[in-house]
Fold:
Amino acid sequence: MVAQLLSVSALTKSFGAVQALRGVSLDLGKGEIRAICGENGAGKSTLVKLLMGLYAPDSGTVSIDGAAVRIEGPQHAHRLGLALVAQELSLAPHLSVLDNIWLGSEDVPLFHRRGDLRRRAAEALEKLDAGFDLDEPVSRLKVGQRQLVEIARLLTRDSRILILDEPTATLSDVEIARLFSVLRSLRAEGRSVIYITHRLGEVFEICDSVTVLRNGEHISTNPVSAITRDALIGDMLGRSFAEIYPPKRPAEHEGVLTVDGLHIPGTVERLSFTAPRGKITALAGQIGSGATEVARAIAGLVHDATGTLSLGGRPVPLGSAHASRRAGIMFVSEDRAVDGLFHRNVLENLVASDVGRYTQSGLLSFPRMRAGAEKRAELVGVDKSRLAANAFDLSGGNQQKVLFGRVSGASEPGVLVMNEPTRGVDIGARADIYALMRDFCRQGYALLMTSSDLEEVVGMADIVITLYRGQMIGRYEGAAIDIAAILSDITHPVSPSERAA
Amino acid sequence: MTALARGLAAPRNRPYLFLAGTVLLLIVLDWNGGRFLTSATAFSVLQTFATLGPAALGLGMTMLVREFDLSIAGVFGLAGCVAVLTGGESAWLGLVLGVMTGAAFGLVQGLIITSLGLPSIAVTLGGLLIAVGMAFVLTESQSLVYGNMDLALALNERIATVFSPRSLIAAAIFVVAAIVVGFTRIGRDMVALGSDRRSAETVGLNVKTILIGTFICSGALAAGSGALLSYSLTSAAPSGLSDVLVPAAAAAILGGVSLSGGTGTPAGIAAGVLTLAVMRAGLNAIGAPPYAHDLAMGAILLAVAVLDAPRLGQSVGRLLNRP
Amino acid sequence: MSRQAFALNQLTAVAWLRLLFVAALAAAVALTPGFLSAPSLLTLLTTVSFVGCVAVGMTFITLSGNIMSFSLGATVAACAVTFVTVLNAAGVVAGIVAALAVGGLLSGVQGAIIGGLRANPIIVSIAALALIHGGLNFITGNATVNANPGAGHEILRGKLFGLPVEFLALLILVVVGQVILSRTTFGRHIYFVGSGVRAAEAVGLRVGRVVTGAYVCAGLFSAVAGVLLGLRYNQANMEYGIGYDYDAIAAILVGGTAIQGGHGSAIRTFAGVIFIATIQVLLLLHGFRQEWQYLIAGVIVLLVVMLQTAGRRRV
Structure:
């Protein structure tokens, strides 16, 4: 039997109590584009980090061309022919495009500005039809362009196994098409690609085969022609996706969050919409559509946002998180490690937004704080015994629940703005969080969410507003919500005239 | 025209603007002329450059990689004491031992910082206190006299009216540093480290080696500078938490180095050091009172801090929009 | 052993080590002839109080995530000069009020720039150091201001309940500082800002005000040190307070406050101050000369910092 290009056998890796990979095995042949699909926490990024030598496996083997290897670090991985474009880009913003392309490569001599290195970098950029200057500092490039720089880095390494983790997240359609043609030509050269993505459409468009991981285990590997989209989703979720979404029973409440003419320079143009109380309104769009920025602007975190915002008729000033908070607008961030959780214990994280409440004769009262935290913990399903733990030691799902617990203490229902409410949250906790969201609705909150997970949008939202490059494309309500139409809006919007025809 | 203006105002070029501005300002202040633009002033400037330059360069390099070497002030003084104590027979021996002391401090601190993942400010604070302490212990709290008067004179001998061996050595050090940082892979990796540490690790850069090397350099540079200064003054004193740290940090910052890493060049740092030196020598030359230098330096630093502040635009915008 | 269990074991190991240190220290103190004798103890308490006030004040700055300040020592000098000058002109109370106002203002302005504009705290404090030093030089001409005898300040000197007034003042400041930090909303906000400034902003905290408040506290506490110095020596000049910033941050670190901010307390800083001072006096009494002070302090700081992170990974 011909030795596979890459072979992984019974790979296992744990981090403390969390088992990220359990006995995963797979084979990758030459000239094959393999998709790896799985929910957040399925083990995809751990697998990638093991392949690139950033971690060492607890047990199991990795073989290249049939020979077992122990990958000792990123540069060793490069020598073995592996290369990675990660979701989190590894670029140094202060360095030029040229320097970043050659960063970390062992081929670079001491006096590193050699002509042929420059030429090869230029060729790689050419293949991707990326128009920018080799000497431009990366900090001046937009996110999509930065991703192209990382991909160019891959191309200069002459690698045989390219790993791409969500490579199209920030690319325009034109750039995606170019990337795909580059991948096809690489495949023709006998190189292989591991393509990690959430976008099932791309799996069927460019990949030859697809592996599904779930909860750290290998579930299935099939040629793309032999599996259907629904079966794929079923493998990824482990159950039909409808089960985890609570029934939509939008409550009727008075009052509405009105956004009028919201303008964020460079990102969003004159956006207007309403989000009624008692319902979940979702802004659907890819990265670059402005959806997350709109949410942040409503939460008061975008300082140069202009326009009018009003809640129940009362105006809310933009540009101040304090003012938004006082008006009853609460925010759950998409990046909880950065602007969500504090490096303190769970109790304090739960009461962070209104510590001033728990005072007695002017001073903070610990018993009251504790009681308040316990109440919130119970509300959102966080174990009370974990109150003293460092918030960052909790699982992703519990961390997110803490953030929800934090916003649950308001005396009057207001607006809950959420970016990517279930990012990094495993399946079990997701159902809990969805139930929580419906709860908030029932109490009279207006929920505004953004999500790059269309299944989630369709499963949860009562109203869906689609965005593309900062402009509103369509609005769907209730039964009119259709995943295909939404997908089409956010990736290839049809102009109103075409639609009318 | 606006392209030129924009180019001039670029953060990269600011150090040279500051230098030019300071020189111009002093020419203006030197109303009747004749006191500032003299070779005596130039010599004084370059002597300060010789003393402060390498120390500022070393500190600046640690800031480039997003660390901070607080210990340079102590190492500066300690190396002077070591050089004087051991340089009785051979000045070279004393110098070498002094520099090695600095390098050793850098090595040990670098090892502690990288292997335990500790913040460099905390570790180098300990290093600073230890270095100062060692200087006190070695000298028994007394000023030491170095007998080699000839060496002292030779080190400060005027070359081409404005230079001296010390300032030429400092200039040579800057040239080497500029080549390493600007043209070699090491320099590029240092910028990468300071720019985004996590990315540097992911692409497989040898982060630990680069960091330790940077600290060794900063220790050695401060030490070399301190040793040569002691020789040229023929004395060394355990001066305690001396006055090298603040000027060195100020020079580095004026020179375009940012505390958040990734920016700064040896040439810029040289400009920063010269700006401070010109200010000091110039103010002296025109007879300004001693506090003028402090006030001027404080004002410039404050201006830099405010101009570089991330929320400056927002706050100004908010103030302007308020009815 | 799983990683969590290992970390837990290390944490307990650090706690045991701390206990061991303190026990060893107590034993050494008890066994050293002359330590507990009134004169040496009193000298220790007095000397420690000046830096101690600054250290407790700087704790606010460190906790808010702004690492340290290089200008508090100069602030002490400015406040001492202010106190003595106003004392001579208008009496004790006015002198104290003026000193507090100067301290709060000098530091508060820095806090506003750092908190409101998010300017770099190290650079701003270095700039402030230069400006305050230069300004003081300009105003006093490097001369010493003497307190007029009979200006009313003598009543604030000497001992109360057997303890030097300076030490009592420090104790009061430690209590006040601790209450502010742990029992007020403002104090809690300082911890939040220090442990996640962007999260604090997202939650709606007014970071600018919190940081300004922290710096104002640091300035006020440093002003107290200036007043105490003026009282003690009957005079003030711009050379006061030199080196205090380094001693203060050393005490803060030894006490266990994290230099990145968000964890620590005033009491910890107080413990750090006492710890360092005790060791220094012990060594003095055992025949080590004054020169060893800095060296010992440096070794302690290094050891403590290295041990602490054994139990707590740098995030």
